[in-house]
């Protein structure tokens, strides 16, 4: 239990500093502002080390605390079946996150530019890593449903969302009109319009008589 307290403190401090830094960077509206912590500062800099330490700390804290709470579920909990379903959704979303990393290439993720990706999974979302991480930690936080893990999971979801927003000016500056056109066509997180059109097309094909 004492170890959990240290985790909660580390997670809360990381969440507060990351959220404040990302909001300050967005408010600055200047890519060279000293307040901007994302897109990632130059590798090897103190700001880069601080950002990645806080970001990874918050991720690990949420995974450990939420994972503990899910593993402690018992049949005495009336909500146990629902929480287990949420935990399963979290696992599926984490698997989708790993696929999104593979689709882009680990060396190109988190603002390591290697060209504008618009095909494959990027037809469904402009930010597949953020979108799947948000879905995974949202489901995991709800599955854990504790006063320690759930608020920290919500804070991590907010951090991922702020990172996605903060990244967009950088992408537009790097890729120009190509990114502007892509942004106009594909939503930031989930392309429900594309999903509906794909399902409609599938239903239309199935309804066609066999010849």
TrEMBL record:
Subcellular location: Endomembrane system
GO cellular component, one term: endomembrane system
Membrane topology annotation: Multi-pass membrane protein
Domain of life the protein comes from: Bacteria
Sequence intervals crossing the membrane: 6-28, 49-67, 79-102
Keyword terms: Membrane, Transmembrane, Transmembrane helix
Protein name from the UniProt record: CzcN domain-containing protein
Source species: Hyphomicrobium denitrificans 1NES1
């Amino acid at each position: 239990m004492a170890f959990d307290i240290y985790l909660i403190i580390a997670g809360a401090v990381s969440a507060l500093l990351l959220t404040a830094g990302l909001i300050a960077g967005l408010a600055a509206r200047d890519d060279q502002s000293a307040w901007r912590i994302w897109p990632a500062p130059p590798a090897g800099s103190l700001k880069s080390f601080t950002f990645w330490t806080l970001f990874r700390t918050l991720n690990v804290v949420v995974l450990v605390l939420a994972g503990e709470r899910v593993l402690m579920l018992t049949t005495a909990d009336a909500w146990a079946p629902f929480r287990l379903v949420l935990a399963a959704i979290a696992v599926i979303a984490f698997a989708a996150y790993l696929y999104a990393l593979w689709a882009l290439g680990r060396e190109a993720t988190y603002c390591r530019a290697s060209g504008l990706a618009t095909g494959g999974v990027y037809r469904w979302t402009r930010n597949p890593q953020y979108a799947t991480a948000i879905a995974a930690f949202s489901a995991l936080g709800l599955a854990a449903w504790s006063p320690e893990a759930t608020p920290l999971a919500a804070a991590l979801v907010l951090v991922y969302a702020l990172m996605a927003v903060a990244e967009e000016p950088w992408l537009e500056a790097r890729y120009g009109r190509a990114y502007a056109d892509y942004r106009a066509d594909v939503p930031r997180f989930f392309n429900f319009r594309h999903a509906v059109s794909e399902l409609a097309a599938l239903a239309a094909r199935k309804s066609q008589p066999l010849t």
